[in-house]
Design brief:
single chain; mainly alpha; 434 Repressor (Amino-terminal Domain); 68% helix
Length: 93
């Protein structure tokens, strides 16, 4: 039985698959940011409204970030992480 890693390596030799795979992977990473923010907010016992007040924004902005964080600025992410008592770490691998 092939491992997923080996199968992906073979499939990524197909340019069409590789392009689609990279797009899906990027979209998944972006969605994860919103999920991480939602989880941290709930862990902190905060409502979206409470987090909005701490970050000087609107509840609708927090909701939008949690649902689809693709357009979140790094500065906004920093403000949100501080309000949640979290350390923001970014890495390149």
């Amino acid at each position: 039985m092939k491992k997923l890693k080996d199968l992906l390596k073979t499939q990524k030799e197909n340019p069409s698959f590789a392009k689609d795979y990279d797009l899906v992977l990027e979209e998944t990473r972006i969605e994860m940011i919103g999920e991480l923010i939602r989880e941290a907010r709930k862990e902190a016992g905060l409502s979206q409204e409470a987090l909005a007040k701490l970050t000087h924004t609107k509840k609708s902005a927090i909701s939008r970030i949690e649902r689809h964080a693709s357009d979140i600025k790094l500065s906004t992410l920093s403000v949100v992480s501080k309000a949640l008592g979290k350390k923001l770490e970014i890495s390149f691998r």
